[in-house]
Amino acid sequence: MRGAGRVFSVVVAVVSACVLGAVLPQASAEGNWDETATEFLDDGTEIQVWKAMENLDRTPNLASTLLSREGFLTVKGIVQVRPSAQATVNAGSVTVGLQIGCQVDLGGGMQVGAALSVGPWVSFTVSQYPGVTPGVGANAGGTVTGTIRPGTIAVVPLASKPLQGGYGAIKLSNIYIKVDACGGQTNIRTYVIGAVSTSTDDIQVPAYGQPKWL
């Protein structure tokens, strides 16, 4: 019992430090350098993937709470396929997505202090991009919603489209990102995946952005 009491005290201390030490996020912008990935198939086909034009505009959340993060993200994904004379490209696609991670989840209906409470589990919302195929979990309201738990990363495909003539591009401009009930660091990382199928090979080629805090 005494050992259990010590564990409980440590948990309370960690939670208190996360909440009391938190400050309201300030507005700021952060760009990211472009990333390129190139692969060659055994049949000589070349696949190039670009992650470009990335920018994150952080903004104080409208509710002025300590446990919510908001921002607007711009990113572009490009896939270019150059088939060899010996190969035929049967299909291909470009997918742009986002990875979201939260350091400390203060969910589970926990009451923090006298007036501050948070809902069950960390939740996130990312706006969808019209005109392209949405990722898994899209709803009629044009957003992707989901749940992440402490120490894990949520992978959110935002948009995907087939290649035409060996080329495809998607630009997401100022899409809305919101993460709630996160008491620690919230980080995001963008990605672009080029998927190509030829007469002899199949491959997926990713290009990742640098992690940044939200």
TrEMBL record:
This protein's UniProt keywords: Signal
Keyword Signal: yes
Signal sequence range: 1-29
InterPro entries referenced in this protein's UniProt entry, alphabetically: Leukocidin/porin_MspA_sf (IPR036435), Porin_fam_mycobact-type (IPR015286)
Record-linked PROSITE patterns: PROKAR_LIPOPROTEIN
Claim: Lipoprotein is one of the keywords in the record: no
Listed Pfam families: MspA
Domain of life: Bacteria
UniProt name for this protein: MspA family porin
Organism in which the protein naturally occurs: Nocardia uniformis
